[in-house]
Amino acid sequence: MFNKNHHKILGLAFVGIIYASCKVPAIVEKTANKNTPATYQGNSDTTNIAQMKWKEFFKDQYLSNLIDTALKNNQELNITLQEIEIARNEVRAKKGELLPSVGVKVGAGLEKVGRYTSQGAGDASTEIDKGKEMPEPLPDYLAGLYANWEVDVWHKLRNAKKSAYAKYLSSVEGKNFVTTALVAEIANSYYELLALDKQLEMVRQNIDLQNNAFNVVKIQKEAARTTELAVRKFEAEVLNSKSLEYDILQKITETENKINFLLGRYPQHVDRDKSGFDQDVPTNFKTGIPSQLLANRPDIKQAELGLLAAKLDVKVAKAQFYPSFGISAAFGFQAFNPSYLVKFPESMLYSIAGDVAAPLINRNAIKATYFTANAKQIQAVYQYERSILNGYIEVANQLSGISNLEKSYGLKSKQVEALNQSINISNDLFKSTRADYLEVLMTQRDALEAKLELIETKKQQLNAMVKIYQALGGGWN
């Protein structure tokens, strides 16, 4: 029996546990800076192309078909979907920890104790019926229910569940980010393929042009109007262009296979609209305002949710310093003979107990976990701020690139036009021996290089269109 002194001792011990466990080490917290510049280049219009679905943004039906296939079959995207499922199951697990755990136990055993022990000496005199002692060895049969429940006084389990849910939402945004990157990569590869087709067309046209000049110089050599050196120079130029043709064909194959890989399929021809490369590239995109990046870009939302989860993890780690309150209970039947299990209430057993546990001495492991959780929270703050800064800089770079590429394309177009005219002039002058063969060769070479550069600039314009859409957060919806 407990007397008043015993109760006082228990009360003092309980108060001591509470006091000691509530001494939590101090930490340095950091708040994320969400501020962004007010506008891009002074434009305050909130209309944003990131709100457009990718099927509305990309008009090319062949490109849409490729993206559709990739969103179903791409391995990286499917791996990310499994990450979402893993995170969802973690939420279920944390939710289950809030509820009591109940189990059933059925068992049978056999025990023989020494007769000259305290337990054996007592059992030897126990009678079941008159003149009948306890059996030896002693069987034991048990059937019952057991339950355990941790009372979530400090919201440790609730915060763990909220953290798991934030991580689940973060994984969803991670999938959206992968989707955005996948859509952009397919679009860029598609436009690269169209550019290579155009370059191949230009090279083949140039080969025809060079062959014509080669035939002319051979006739002139037979007429002693030029030398064998000129013939060999023209021949070398034709061979160089044919070599370039095969280089482009190899790049086409590699680019097609890159697209096939993104689509999760083995190498095959990629259908495309080659005339789509000649379309006019828009240069005035509705970019909205920078603060919209926080809502549109999946990587920024993912970082924000990661920060939320990290803050909750700090609270969970902090709760480890506080005492935990547990309740355990059992109810069942136990006897040494199965036939006695149905004897009620003699074979009935039950128990209920509450306990308080808290760390008192050597709490280094708990402190380390707490400080680690806080360091991860500060790390998450920097990651969030970096994702916002990175998003703004990406948009700013693309806006500048779009403007400069537009000017560059206009100048290169005039350059190509001038060189095309110079080719005709140089050919006419060469036929009338008023121009040297080197002038013809150099003019053809310069024209081909200018045409290839013009195609490359056009491809960069198309890529910039894709990148500004991606940078603003479009492509995942």
What would your notes on this structure say?
The protein has 477 residues and is of the alpha+beta class. The chain has 2 domains: 44-98 and 152-323 and 363-471, Outer membrane efflux proteins (OEP), CATH 1.20.1600; 105-114 and 134-151 and 324-357, Outer membrane efflux proteins (OEP) (Single Sheet), CATH 2.20.200.10. The protein is built from 11 helices and 6 strands. It has helices at 4-21, 54-57, 61-73, 75-97, 118-124, 156-222, 228-262, 293-296, 298-319, 364-431, 437-471, and strands at residues 101-111, 127-129, 132-133, 138-151, 324-335, 348-357. Strands 1-4-5-6 form a 4-stranded antiparallel beta sheet, with no helix packed on it. The protein has a two-stranded antiparallel ribbon with strand order 2-3. Strand 2 and strand 3 form a beta hairpin. Helix 7 (228-262) packs parallel to helix 11. The longest helix has 68 residues, at 364-431.
Q: How are the secondary structure elements laid out?
A:
Blueprint: H1 4-21, H2 54-57, H3 61-73, H4 75-97, E1 101-111, H5 118-124, E2 127-129, E3 132-133, E4 138-151, H6 156-222, H7 228-262, H8 293-296, H9 298-319, E5 324-335, E6 348-357, H10 364-431, H11 437-471
Antiparallel strand pairs: 1-4, 2-3, 4-5, 5-6
Helix pairs in contact: 3-6, 4-6, 6-7, 6-9, 6-11, 7-11, 9-10, 10-11
